[in-house]
C-alpha cells in the first residue's frame, strides 16, 4: 500500500442501505391524529394511513388498499375501520379487511401491512422491521414521569422539518460530535462524554454560549447541561437543564425522525418545559416557546450543513474528535438482520474527552473576534444630532 | 447483510484502525473485568467493554437493575477508572495517537 501520508485522501461515499432501520419510530403527537379523519404519513419509502377508532385507539396501516391500490389516506373513517375512497373496502387496525359493502364475503387473503402501535410520552410510536418481527416492547423508550400532566409540564411544542438529500445517519452522527457545538451551534462544550450500550446511545454534554455570535446557543449568559439518549435508531430523549442568568429551567426535548426515502427523512422535535414554581402558565408557555425556537434554530443550523455536505464512510479524525466509527458500528445493528448482529455492535463503549485543551484554542479565537468587533464598532461613523460625523 | 457498504479497501482499514488498533487490555483491580482502553491524549479516553466484562462489573450490574428501563445511569465505574489511571501511571497504556487519532 502506498504511503498514506503522501497520498491524496479521497472521500468514500459508500453505498446507502436498501432498507430502513428496525425499531420504534415516532409519527408525531397522538392528539394530531384524533380528529376522526384518516391521516397520511410518509414513511419507509411509502405512505402510511393513521386513524382513530371508536375506542380512541390509533391504527396504522400501509397507505394503499390491497384491492386496487386506492389511497386510504384519502378515505373515510367508518366506525373502527378506514374505508378506501375507491371501492369502500373497510380495513381494521389489525390489517384485516372487515367488510366489503358490495360483496357477500371478504377474501381470506385480504390482509395488509399493519404496524404495532404504542402511545409514549403523548406521541404515537410504531414498530418497523424489514424482517417482519413482532414488536419488541422491552426496548420502548422510557415513560417520562408527569410529562402528560399539564399542571407540571407546558403543552408540547411540536415541529417537523423535511430533510432532502441526506441519509438520517447524518443526524445520528451528532451524538459524538463535540466540536460542532462550537462551530455550528456557537457554544463552548465544557464537558463531553458518550456511552453506547445495547440499543441505546447517549451523549452527555455541558456547554456555555459564545459571547461573539448570536443565534443558536450563542449567548454568554447561557449554560446548558444536556443528557441525550437514543432509544433505538430514531427516538431520542434529551434532558436539558438550561441556566440563563442564574434562572434554571428543566426542558425535555424529543428528537425523532422517520426515514421517508433512501436519502430523505422527516425530522420531528417536541419540546416541553417543566413549569417553574411560582410562574403563571402564560410565562411558563412563553419560556417553552423561547426554548423551542432556540433548539429549532439549532436544528436548522445542522440542516444547513447536512443539505450541503457529502456522505462519507471514511471520516478522517483528529485526537479531539468523538468516536464516530464506534457510533456507526452501534447504529449498524438496526440495519442488519437480527441474526447478523455482531456482539461489538451492542457491547458497552465509553468515551470521554476533557475539552479544556480545545476550549483554550476556541477562547483565543473568540477573544480575537471580540477585539475585531470592538474595532469595527469604533471605526464606524457615529450618528449625532448634527448628522453623521 | 451489510448495510452502509464502503467502496474502498482503505475504508475497511480505517474502521479497524479507529475501533480496534492500540486497545490495551486493562483488568479492573477490583472485579477483574477486562476491558480495552485507548488514550489518544492525556484528556481523551475510550473504553471498550465486552458482554463478559459487563456481567463481571458489580457496579454496572447493580445500576442496570436499579435503572429498570427508565433514565439510564451512565456514569463510569469509579473502580475501573482508578484501574485505568494506575495502568497509565505505570506506563502500560501509551498516551498518543497515530497520525492524529
From TrEMBL, chain A:
GO terms for biological process: cholesterol metabolic process; lipid catabolic process. It comes from the Bacteria. One of its GO terms (molecular function) is metal ion binding. The keyword Oxidoreductase applies. PROSITE patterns: RIESKE (PS51296). Residues 24-126 form the Rieske domain. The keyword Disulfide bond does not apply. InterPro entries: Cholesterol_7-desaturase (IPR050584), KshA-like_C (IPR045605), Rieske_2Fe-2S (IPR017941), Rieske_2Fe-2S_sf (IPR036922). SUPFAM superfamilies: Bet v1-like, ISP domain. Keywords: 2Fe-2S, Iron, Iron-sulfur, Lipid degradation, Lipid metabolism, Metal-binding, Monooxygenase, Oxidoreductase, Steroid metabolism. Its cofactor is Fe cation. Homotrimer. The two-component system 3-ketosteroid-9-alpha-monooxygenase is composed of an oxygenase component KshA and a reductase component KshB. This is Rieske-type oxygenase. The lineage of its organism: Bacteria, Bacillati, Actinomycetota, Actinomycetes, Propionibacteriales.
UniProtKB/TrEMBL annotation, chain B:
This is Ferredoxin. It comes from Nocardioides albus.
Amino acid at each position: 500500500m502506498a504511503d498514506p501520508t503522501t497520498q491524496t485522501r479521497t472521500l468514500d461515499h459508500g453505498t446507502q442501505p436498501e432498507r430502513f432501520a428496525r425499531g420504534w419510530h415516532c409519527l408525531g403527537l397522538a392528539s394530531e391524529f384524533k380528529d376522526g379523519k384518516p391521516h397520511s404519513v410518509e414513511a419507509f419509502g411509502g405512505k402510511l394511513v393513521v386513524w382513530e377508532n371508536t375506542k380512541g385507539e390509533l391504527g396504522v396501516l400501509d397507505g394503499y388498499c390491497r384491492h386496487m391500490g386506492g389511497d386510504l389516506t384519502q378515505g373515510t373513517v367508518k366506525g373502527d375501520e378506514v374505508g378506501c375512497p375507491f371501492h369502500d373496502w373497510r380495513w381494521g387496525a389489525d390489517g384485516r379487511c372487515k367488510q366489503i359493502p358490495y360483496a357477500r364475503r371478504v377474501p381470506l387473503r385480504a390482509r395488509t401491512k399493519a404496524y404495532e402501535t404504542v402511545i409514549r410520552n403523548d406521541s404515537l410510536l410504531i414498530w418497523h422491521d424489514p424482517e417482519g418481527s413482532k414488536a419488541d416492547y422491552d426496548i420502548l423508550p422510557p415513560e417520562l414521569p408527569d410529562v402528560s400532566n399539564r399542571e407540571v409540564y407546558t403543552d408540547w411544542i411540536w415541529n417537523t422539518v423535511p430533510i432532502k438529500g441526506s441519509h438520517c445517519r447524518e443526524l445520528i452522527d451528532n451524538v459524538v460530535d463535540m466540536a460542532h457545538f462550537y462551530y455550528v451551534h456557537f457554544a463552548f462544550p465544557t464537558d463531553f462524554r458518550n456511552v453506547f450500550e445495547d440499543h441505546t446511545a447517549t451523549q452527555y454534554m455541558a456547554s456555555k454560549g459564545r459571547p461573539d455570535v448570536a443565534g443558536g446557543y450563542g449567548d454568554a449568559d447561557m449554560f446548558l447541561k444536556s443528557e441525550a439518549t437514543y432509544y433505538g435508531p430514531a427516538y431520542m430523549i434529551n434532558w436539558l437543564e438550561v441556566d440563563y442568568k442564574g434562572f434554571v429551567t428543566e426542558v425535555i426535548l424529543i428528537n425523532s425522525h422517520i426515514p421517508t426515502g433512501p436519502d430523505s427523512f422527516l425530522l420531528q422535535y417536541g419540546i416541553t418545559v417543566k413549569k417553574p414554581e411560582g410562574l403563571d402558565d402564560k410565562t411558563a408557555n412563553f419560556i417553552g416557546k423561547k426554548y423551542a425556537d432556540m433548539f429549532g434554530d439549532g436544528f436548522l443550523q445542522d440542516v444547513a450543513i447536512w443539505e450541503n455536505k457529502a456522505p462519507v464512510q471514511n471520516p478522517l479524525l483528529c485526537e479531539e474528535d468523538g468516536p464516530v466509527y464506534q457510533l456507526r458500528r452501534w447504529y449498524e445493528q438496526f440495519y442488519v438482520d437480527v441474526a447478523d448482529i455482531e456482539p461489538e455492535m451492542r457491547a458497552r463503549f465509553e468515551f470521554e474527552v476533557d475539552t479544556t485543551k480545545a476550549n483554550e484554542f476556541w477562547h483565543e479565537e473568540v477573544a480575537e473576534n471580540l477585539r475585531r468587533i470592538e474595532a469595527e464598532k469604533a471605526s464606524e461613523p457615529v450618528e449625532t444630532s448634527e448628522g453623521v460625523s | 447483510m451489510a448495510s452502509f457498504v464502503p467502496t474502498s479497501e482503505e475504508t475497511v482499514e480505517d474502521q479497524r484502525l479507529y475501533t480496534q488498533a492500540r486497545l490495551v487490555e486493562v483488568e479492573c483491580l477490583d472485579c477483574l473485568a477486562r476491558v480495552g482502553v485507548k488514550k489518544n491524549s492525556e484528556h481523551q479516553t475510550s473504553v471498550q467493554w465486552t458482554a463478559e466484562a459487563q456481567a463481571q462489573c458489580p457496579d454496572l450490574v447493580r445500576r442496570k437493575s436499579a435503572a429498570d428501563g427508565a433514565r439510564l445511569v451512565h456514569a463510569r465505574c469509579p473502580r475501573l477508572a482508578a484501574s485505568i489511571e494506575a495502568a497509565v501511571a505505570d506506563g502500560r497504556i501509551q498516551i498518543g495517537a497515530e497520525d492524529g487519532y
